[in-house]
Amino acid sequence: MKEILYLREVYEILTVKQIEAVEALIEHGSERKAAEALGKSKTAINSAVQIAKSKAAKSGYEPVADLVHKTANGFAVTGVSTAYKADGSVGLQWVKQSPDKALALQAMMTAIESYEWRPAPVIKLGSHHDKDLCTLITLTDFHLGMYSWAAECGDDWDVKIAERVAFTAVNQMINDSPDSGVGILNLQGDFLHFDSLKAVTPASGHVLDADSRSSKMIELSMIIMMGCVELMLSKFKAVKVIVCEGNHDEYGSAWLRKAAKQIYRDNPRLEVDDTEFPYYAYKHGRVMLGFHHGHKKKNQQLPQLFAGEPRFRHMWGDTAYTYIHTGHFHHSEAHVSEGGGAIVERHPTLAARDAYAARGGFISKRAAHAITYHTEHGEIKRTTVTPTS
Q1: Of 300, 284, 380, which Cα lies nearest the Cα of 341?
Q2: For residue 190, which of 212, 248, 270, 296 is within the disulfide window of CB 3.0 to 4.6 Å?
Q3: Which pLDDT belongs to residue 307?
């Protein structure tokens, strides 16, 4: 197996299992013999070696393709152009490198999980709470870090305004809600406006109007989330935090979940939903609450997804009321869909319009909802707040 000997040059980026598979294949000469030696299947050996080859190529090392110079740490090859001489040797070669997003996310998660987080403060709680009640407080499409100019967009928006609006709205929703046994802080996706050092959309790279540096946005997102959690802990007996993945903050939502889980890991009254799946659910008595930002599936598709998805199927069948919450389009639906055995509701945003929305003529009422559910009767109360209320 001389053709994979080159993988020994990239062992520093491979896992132990991948190295074992490569060495066994080199030593024994076939996937069958390598699998027998390691007590694994041929498929497992093949998969490990293919992943190793892919990692080597991303790192800039694949001699068969005349790639013999490894990338800088934290970068991956995203394109190669090679000009060959008449004799077939390499004349010129251009190798395009970009930051390795997967590696950056892994490093961020490792840092978050290993950091010595200070414990969150203990919040005093009143004596009476109705265990049958669950109050859901939703902030969707908050776009922290966005910049809007009133002369162009109709309203101003920056990080200072965002912080004030978040605390004012959440405090008012909490004050207008009953003393529930459970409170849910639902950050319904796109809580952060951009997802990297550059203010661009993750998928398409569209340039965004940004008010803040990424590190400042990260710090403020933690301040707002922790402040809202502390307000809720002073009102509700137990608090659950859901940070939905959005199309603007695929990575940002992940590290925000991880950080919250570490900060509150010793608080028995608080639970953080650490699901990596972009669909989330919570059961409260005979009530099922589902959550999805709205960037992967349309509202009318969600009842079937939550009913059929194996991880939610039992919850769906064990409840009498199902409410699914989405965002993404920055406005409420003209009507609430009740098809497919669930009520699906799209929430509005508290954030101002950006230049793209304003110039495109998109208009919506800025608002946020606090909804209280009863274990036996479903939704029983709703409070709506606006930035001026």
Answers
A1: 300
A2: 248
A3: 94
